[in-house]
Design a protein that fits this description.
Blueprint: H1 4-8, H2 11-14, H3 19-39, H4 44-55, H5 61-70, H6 78-115, H7 133-146, E1 151-152, E2 158-159, H8 161-164, E3 193-194, H9 200-208, E4 213-222, E5 234-244, H10 249-264, E6 270-277, E7 280-289, E8 306-315, H11 317-322, E9 331-338, H12 339-347, H13 360-363
Parallel strand pairs: 1-4
Antiparallel strand pairs: 2-3, 4-5, 5-9, 6-7, 7-8, 8-9
Helix pairs in contact: 3-6, 5-6, 7-12
Bound molecules: zinc ion.
Length: 367
């Protein structure tokens, strides 16, 4: 730094009384400036302070020279001091401007480097999920029934015993309740339970709507089963119901056969075996010829050639009594499809738990 006192004192005090001395004094100041410019140029903060030190409006070196050297200079020396000061100012300004451009260029360069996209790098791969096999099966089943005039309704998973049992002709102490042991909600008034089938929506729909009714009811249902390779405490079901003034057993059989062929393939044959459900009469188990062996017998069908697909039947007239439908004028059929079971059958899955373990190695097989 030039000695602060040097620019704070008058030239006359410094003994610079001739033009030569003045020129030499300015040359010294300029050399000092150049030296400092080099030492302060590497660090932005240091450079900032350097700029203020030289050009600050009040106490910057250039201002001090103006105040202390130029203003009080003698008449003879004033022109040369002014001239030298201007040269110094021009030099200082040019140097600072050059450095400013340099700093900006460096900043731009590093910003450009930061923003540069390397097109040769592999992109970020985001795994795209697929719909779960159960969801796919739901959609397939719904598609089949929607195409023949059914519509989808959904209902609560927490039900009252009335809708889950009584109105479906399963009174208390009825042995059919043993197969449908479920989970009860503790402390709820009226003893709510987790529905054991989606059949309660038969009742809830018929209570609200006049016939004809053609619905399917997809959803989760619950049983207090010990989990094994084909049972769980939760599974998926689609309940179906068709009620109108002229529905016959032929309509029932035709619908069942159409569904099985659509779902398992046109070559598959069906048969009905007598069965029992409290809310249908007559009731039937629907069997299909094994879609793996075509009926000749294999491991999947346990060598019988037939596979049990689902349970169904004509709506028990007793049920109509619960919803104020006239059993003399109306008839209909109902069925209950086990979605997990149908998916396992169609895709050759032996273990039910595989459907719920969320192992992507398993799920990826069903894109
Ligand atoms: Zn078979």
């Amino acid at each position: 730094m030039p000695d602060k006192p040097v620019v704070e004192r008058k030239l006359s005090e410094l003994g610079d009384t001739t033009p030569e001395r003045v020129v030499a004094r300015f040359a010294e100041v300029r050399e000092e400036f150049d030296r400092q410019a080099v030492t302060h140029s590497n660090d932005p903060e240091s450079w900032r302070l350097f700029v203020i030190y030289w050009t600050g409006r009040k106490s910057g070196v250039l201002s001090q020279i103006t105040d202390n050297w130029l203003k009080p200079a003698s008449k003879e020396l004033k022109p040369i001091v002014g001239q030298e000061l201007n040269k110094l100012k021009t030099h200082v300004e040019a140097t600072l401007e050059e450095k400013r451009k340099e700093i900006e260029a460096v900043a731009e360069q590093s910003a450009a480097a930061r923003d540069q996209i390397d097109l040769s790098l592999p992109g970020v791969e985001r795994a795209i999920g697929t719909r779960h096999l159960i969801r796919q099966t739901f959609e397939e089943l719904q598609r089949i029934f929607l195409s023949i005039g059914f519509r989808v309704v959904e209902g609560p998973e927490i039900e009252t015993p009335y809708y889950n049992f009584e109105a479906l002709n399963i009174p208390e102490h009825h042995p059919a309740r043993d197969n449908m042991d479920t989970f009860y909600i503790e402390g709820s008034r009226g003893g709510h339970l987790l529905r054991t089938h989606t059949s309660p929506m038969q009742i809830r729909t018929m209570e609200k709507e006049k016939p004809p009714v053609r619905i399917i009811v997809p959803g989760k249902v619950y049983r207090r089963d010990n989990p094994d390779s084909t049972h769980g405490y939760m599974f998926h079901q689609i309940e179906g119901l068709a009620v109108d003034t002229d529905i016959t057993f032929c309509d029932f059989k035709g619908t069942v056969e159409y569904f099985v062929r659509e779902f398992l393939g046109p070559q598959v044959k069906t048969r009905l075996r007598p069965s029992y459900f409290p809310f249908t009469e007559p009731s039937a188990e629907v069997d299909a010829t094994c879609h793996i062996c075509g009926g000749s017998g294999c491991r999947v069908c346990k060598s019988s050639g037939w596979i049990e697909v689902f349970g169904a039947g004509m709506v028990n007239p007793t049920v109509y009594g619960f919803v104020n439908y006239d059993p003399e004028k109306l008839s209909g059929f109902a069925f209950g499809l086990g979605v997990d079971r149908l998916a396992m059958m169609k895709y050759g899955i032996s273990e039910l738990p595989l459907l719920f373990q969320n192992d992507v190695r398993f799920l990826r097989q069903f894109p």
